[in-house]
Structure formats: C-alpha cells, structure tokens
Write a structure and sequence with these properties.
Elements (H helix, E strand, L loop, with lengths): L27 E2 L9 H7 L9 H18 L5 E6 L2 H12 L5 E6 L2 H12 L3 E6 L8 H8 L6 E5 L1 E2 L4 E2 L3 H10 L2 E5 L11 H4 L3 E3 L12 E6 L1 H8 L12 H8 L11 H17 L1 H21 L3 E2 L10 E5 L6 H12 L1 E2 L1 E2 L8 E5 L7 H17 L8 H10 L1
Parallel strand pairs: 1-13, 3-4, 3-5, 5-8, 8-9
Antiparallel strand pairs: 2-10, 6-7, 9-10, 11-12, 12-15, 14-15
Helix pairs in contact: 1-10, 2-10, 11-13, 11-14, 12-13
The structure holds pyridoxal-5'-phosphate (PLP).
Pyridoxal-5'-phosphate binds next to helix 3.
C-alpha cells in the first residue's frame, strides 16, 4: 500500500465512518424469549476470559455440569451445554441419535414440533408426524394412532410449545415410546427452570434446552442431556454423525476426562450460564416453579378485566408464556408497536396459523415478577385504549385480587 505523503492529501480516518458506541435501548423483555436477565448474569459475561483449557475454567465447567444435572432432574453423565442456541440443542439430539433409515414419531402441534420433524428428515429419518391442533396438547392416543403398530426408533415431543403456549404432559407420551421400544426425546427449551423437568423420573433419553427463556441468560448455549441408553445408541452407530461440530463422540472428549480440544468453548457465555444456574438453584426449583405459576395466574386474571382471553385451556397452559387471542378489530402489529414505543415492553406476535391473531407474553425467569405482571397489564390496557377500545374492568385491581387470594 502506498504511504500517504503531504502531496497525496490526508487519508480519511476510518474512525470517521464508524458507528457510535453501542447504546441499545432499555426494554422489558416480555415476549417468547430472550427474557429479562438478572444483572448478575450479565455481569458474569464481563468477567476475565480464561483459556478454554485453563484448569480454573475446567473447574467452572464441572460445576456447571453438576448444576445442569440438578436443574434437568438427572444423574446423566453426558449432560453439557452445546455451543449454539436452542436449535443447536435440537440438531445435536437428532444428528447424534438418528441414522439414515431410522423411523421417528414426532408430535407436531406448533412451530417447534414442525421444526423437529424437519430436522429429523434432514438426518435421513422417515418421519411420522403426530399432527395435533395448534393450541392444544397431544394425547398418547394420538401418538398410538399415528404409530399404527409400526416400528419406531425415536419418539419426540415438545414439553413447552412456545409458539402456542401449550404445556405437554410428558409421562403418557413416554409410555408410548416404551410400548414401541423407542428412545424418547424431549424439547425443554421453554420449560427448563419454569416448569418441573425431571428427566430421570420421566425416563427421558435425550433432552435439550436454551438459555434465553426461564434460565434468564442471553441466547447462545443449548443445555442438553443424554441417558446411558442414548449414549449406547450413539456408540452403536453404523454411520458417522453428519455434523462434525455437533458430534457428541468428539465433544465428549472436551467435556469429559480427556479435555481434548474440539472447538473453542464460548467461555464468557458459559460464565453467564454458570451464574444463571447458580441463581436458579439458590432460589430453589420448587419455589421458582411456584413463582412462575403465581405470576401467570395473576396476569391471566388481569387479562380478563381487559376483555382478553388466553388461547390455551387452563390445564394445558404454560406458566412462563401466555398466548392471548387478539380481539376482533384490534390491529395486532400496531398494538405491539405501541407497547414497545410507549412502554418499552416487548411482547411476541403469533406464528404460523396464529400470526396476526395472537399475542405471546412471557413471564420467564427473572422476568416473572409482580412488577412485570402489572406493567404488562397497564401497557396492554394503554394499547387497547389507543385503538379506541373500552375496557370491561380494572386489570390491576383484578391482578391484585389474584395475589391476595
Ligand atoms: N424449541 C422451542 C420450544 C423454542 O421455543 C425455541 C425457541 O424459541 C427453540 C426450540 C429454538 O431455540 P433457539 O431460537 O434458541 O435456537
């Protein structure tokens, strides 16, 4: 490159073209994730980065694995955090457990069941979809009917379907997997830390989650756990795992005794997850689930006073995420824009057949608080009034009554 001289004129400083330093607006994240974070989790991200083979970091990884086992309700040795978001957890499970020609029976009653089926097909599985209504849980009989007496290697279902707000009862679907002699895979992305997850008691063979929902950690890691039976299946594979990055037989070398390099671990993200898990266990799992239930109940009670109805019947409803029918005549996108601009509150819109007619409000992890319940209700009231709606009741008084009940 030519050296600039006095005659060639000044070189424009690249700094002149640089954007301003990051100053993201403050938002209250009340959508389907990412969720509100505890400041201690964000502070953990800023701690000094260690080398990924530093003995001090390896100790942090071991602590993290022990805490993950506690939150997942398992003693599974192969419990770890995959590098990547929840979808990386999903792909890890399928790419390691499925071989071309395997048969998978997958519950599809929302976006994430649909995605599991797609990922399984990409791994070469022949997939039978157990198609259910969006906004309703699936039944064991629906799985049996879809299986139709066939042979299956894997049964998979989503525990907390974030696209619809449905909680799936797990043991009845596990019973079908047992009848078929199949491995049982569970998506716990939105349930982990918000609803009881007990992998060992349920007999789950493989499970994955994400960090940005009820664990209140930034997106970027996918906690995952595999039973001894799943590990044996992986060891007996006839074909190589198609993804080098997600190949558990290689990744175990780093998370296990050998500590051999596979890829550079996202060190600071693992600090954040360590802190998020520590806070989760410090609160106590049962207390945390009860907190999510309490605030979800108060929020739904307040919704009734706004003339809004949840989409999912009570017995199948998630606590960390409430899906709401957008009333006829209300502009969904304009209302969400109003919430963001007037209150700094983010909520989610609907997906798939629920696009344009559903709001999804998350009260997840550190965001599951009375303050957010009241803020969410006040903001929704403002958004409805801004569109000329009159409200049938006082949402804050209704929520307060639910708290004192
Ligand atoms: N599964 C469920 C139930 C989810 O809610 C999500 C994300 O919202 C995913 C899988 C995918 O996770 P991610 O978006 O973190 O990749």
């Amino acid at each position: 490159m030519a050296t600039p001289t006095a005659t060639s004129g000044p070189v424009t400083s690249p700094a002149a073209a640089l954007p301003a330093a990051l100053e993201p607006p403050q938002r209250v994240l009340m959508g389907p994730g990412p969720s509100v974070m505890d400041p201690a989790v964000l502070a953990a991200l800023a701690k000094p980065t260690l080398g990924h083979l530093d003995p001090a970091f390896l100790r942090i990884m071991d602590e993290l694995r022990a805490m993950l086992r506690a939150v997942f309700g398992t003693t599974n040795h192969l419990t770890l955090a995959m590098s990547g978001t929840g979808s990386a957890g999903m792909e890890t499970c399928f790419v390691n457990l499925v071989e071309p020609g395997d048969r998978a029976l997958i519950g599809v009653n929302g976006v994430f069941g649909t995605r599991m089926a797609e990922v399984a097909r990409r791994c070469g599985a022949t997939v039978t979809e157990v198609k259910g209504e969006w906004g309703r849980a699936l039944t064991a009989d629906q799985f049996r009917a879809a299986a139709d007496g066939g042979r299956y290697d894997l049964v998979a279902v989503v525990h907390a379907e974030t696209s619809t707000g449905v909680l799936q009862d797990v043991p009845p679907i596990k019973a079908v997997a047992d009848e078929l002699g199949a491995l049982f895979l569970l998506d716990c992305v939105t349930s982990l830390g918000g609803h009881p997850v007990t992998l060992d008691a349920w007999g789950v063979d493989a499970a994955y989650s994400g960090t940005q929902k009820c664990l209140s950690c930034p997106p970027g890691l996918a906690p995952a756990s595999f039973s001894p039976r799943a590990v044996e299946r992986i060891q007996r594979r006839k074909t190589k795992v198609a993804s080098w990055y997600l190949d558990l037989s290689l990744i175990q070398g780093y998370w296990g005794e050998e500590r051999s390099y596979h890829h550079t671990a996202p060190i600071n993200m693992l600090y954040a997850l360590h802190e998020a898990l520590r806070l989760t266990l410090q609160e106590g799992l049962d207390k945390r689930y009860a907190r999510h239930a309490l605030h979800a109940r108060a929020f739904v009670t307040g919704l009734a006073a706004l003339g809004l109805a949840p989409r999912v019947p009570l017995a199948e409803r998630l606590n960390p995420l409430t899906s709401i029918a957008v009333p006829e005549g209300v502009d969904d996108a304009a209302a969400r824009r109003y919430l963001l601009e007037a209150y700094g509150v983010e909520i989610g819109g609907g997906l798939g057949p629920m696009k344009g007619n559903t709001w999804r409000v998350g009260l997840m992890g550190a965001g599951s608080t009375r303050r957010n319940v009241e803020l969410g209700l006040a903001a929704l009231a403002g958004a409805l009034r801004a569109q000329g709606r009159s409200l049938p009741g006082d949402p804050l008084a209704a929520a307060a009554a639910a708290y004192s009940a």
